[in-house]
Automatic annotation (TrEMBL):
<dbReference type="InterPro" id="IPR001279">
    <property type="entry name" value="Metallo-B-lactamas"/>
</dbReference>
<protein>
    <submittedName>
        <fullName>MBL fold metallo-hydrolase</fullName>
    </submittedName>
</protein>
<dbReference type="InterPro" id="IPR036866">
    <property type="entry name" value="RibonucZ/Hydroxyglut_hydro"/>
</dbReference>
<dbReference type="InterPro" id="IPR050855">
    <property type="entry name" value="NDM-1-like"/>
</dbReference>
<dbReference type="Pfam" id="PF00753">
    <property type="entry name" value="Lactamase_B"/>
</dbReference>
<feature type="domain" description="Metallo-beta-lactamase">
    <location>
        <begin position="24"/>
        <end position="205"/>
    </location>
</feature>
Length: 301
C-alpha cells in the first residue's frame, strides 16, 4: 500500500496512491497559515488513517475542510476519519447519492479490507461554484457534471495552474461515464481546456500529468460515441459492440473493460436519454466481467 505526497506549488500537494485502478484513488492537500483543506478521502479505513497522519504531519493540524470531488466511495468512504474536525463540502447531488448508496460499493469487492467505515455525509453543499481561501491559497470549486457522475466537482487553483480533476480525468486509465454522461463528459473536457494557464493535473486516479490528459480523454470519448452510434445502427447490444470494437490507441489505457459500461451510457444517450439519468449499474458490472473473460474486476484497495 504505497502512497506519496508530492508538492506541486507552495502549500499545494498531490497525495498519490499508485498504481491507481479500481478504487485506488488520489487525494489533494492544500495548506496555508492557520488552515488546511483536503480533497477526497480514499476508500478504506486504513488508507484514510494513513492520509490523516500525512495531512497532520504536513499541515501541522487536521484539515478543517474536506472537499469530495464526487460521491463514489473510493473518494468519500474515508470522510468519517476527518468529519469530526472538518466541514465536508460536496455538490448537492453528491450528498444525495452518498445517502442513497451508503457503503454498497463494498459488495462489488467483498474481499477488500474496507475496515469499519461509516458514511459521513457532506455538511455543506453547493450547485455551481464555491471559493475556498486557505491562508493565501485561493481555490475554486467548480461543478462540471454530469460527467463521470451526476455531481462532479473540480478544484482549480488559478494562481498556480493546478487542477484537481476528480474522476472526470484519469491519467493512463480508461474514462468511466456509466454513472454520469458521455456528452456531459465531453462538455466538461471542453470547459477544462479553457482554464487559463492550466499546466498540472491531479486526476482521481493515476500519476500527476499535464493538459495532454484532456486530449486522450476527449479522443476516447469521441471514439466511444462513434462505437455506440455504429452499434445501435447495427443492432448490437453493448457487450457485443464492445467485443467487436478495436481499442486501437486506447488499448494502452488501464481498465479497458470500462468500454462495456461506457457503452451502456453512450447507447442511452444515442437513443435520446437526458444527461445523467439513472441507469442500473449491476448489469454493466456483470458485462465488464464477461468482457474480461469472466475474471473479476481487479481492485487493489
Ligand atoms: Zn469515481
Amino acid at each position: 500500500m504505497d502512497s506519496e505526497l508530492r508538492p506541486l506549488a507552495p502549500g499545494v500537494y498531490a497525495y498519490l496512491q499508485p498504481p491507481g485502478g479500481w478504487c485506488v484513488s488520489n487525494a489533494g492537500l492544500l495548506t496555508g497559515a492557520g488552515s488546511a483543506a483536503l480533497i477526497d478521502t480514499t476508500a478504506t479505513e486504513s488508507r484514510a488513517r494513513r492520509l490523516y497522519d500525512t495531512a497532520v504531519a504536513t499541515a501541522g493540524r487536521s484539515p478543517g475542510i474536506v472537499v469530495n470531488t464526487h460521491h463514489h466511495g473510493d473518494h468519500t468512504f474515508g470522510n468519517f476519519v476527518f468529519a469530526g474536525e472538518a466541514t465536508v463540502i460536496a455538490h448537492e447531488a453528491a450528498r444525495t447519492e452518498m445517502a442513497d448508496k451508503g457503503t454498497g460499493l463494498r459488495r462489488v469487492w467483498p474481499d477488500v479490507g474496507w475496515g469499519e467505515i461509516s458514511v459521513a455525509l457532506p455538511d455543506l453543499t453547493f450547485t455551481e461554484r464555491l471559493s475556498l481561501h486557505i491562508g493565501d491559497l485561493h481555490a475554486e470549486l467548480r461543478y462540471v457534471g454530469p460527467a463521470h457522475t451526476s455531481n462532479d466537482v473540480v478544484v482549480w487553483l488559478p494562481e498556480h495552474g493546478v487542477l484537481f480533476a476528480g474522476d472526470v480525468l484519469m491519467a493512463g486509465a480508461t474514462p468511466f461515464v456509466l454513472m454520469g454522461s458521455l456528452s456531459g463528459s465531453l462538455q466538461a473536457v471542453a470547459a477544462l481546456r479553457r482554464l487559463p494557464g492550466l499546466h498540472t493535473v491531479v486526476c482521481g486516479h493515476g500519476p500527476v500529468c499535464g493538459p495532454e490528459v484532456l486530449d486522450v480523454t476527449e479522443g476516447y470519448l469521441t471514439w466511444l460515441a462513434a462505437v455506440a452510434a455504429d452499434g445501435v445502427r447495427r443492432g448490437w447490444n453493448p457487450l457485443e459492440a464492445a467485443r467487436r470494437a478495436d481499442l486501437g490507441e486506447f488499448a494502452t489505457l488501464t481498465e479497458p473493460e470500462r468500454l462495456v459500461a461506457n457503452l451502456h451510457r453512450a447507447y442511452a444517450e444515442e437513443r435520446g436519454a437526458p444527461r445523467g439519468i439513472h441507469l442500473p449499474s449491476a448489469p454493466a458490472f456483470d458485462e465488464m466481467v464477461a468482457y474480461n473473460g469472466g475474471r473479476p474486476l481487479t481492485c487493489r484497495a
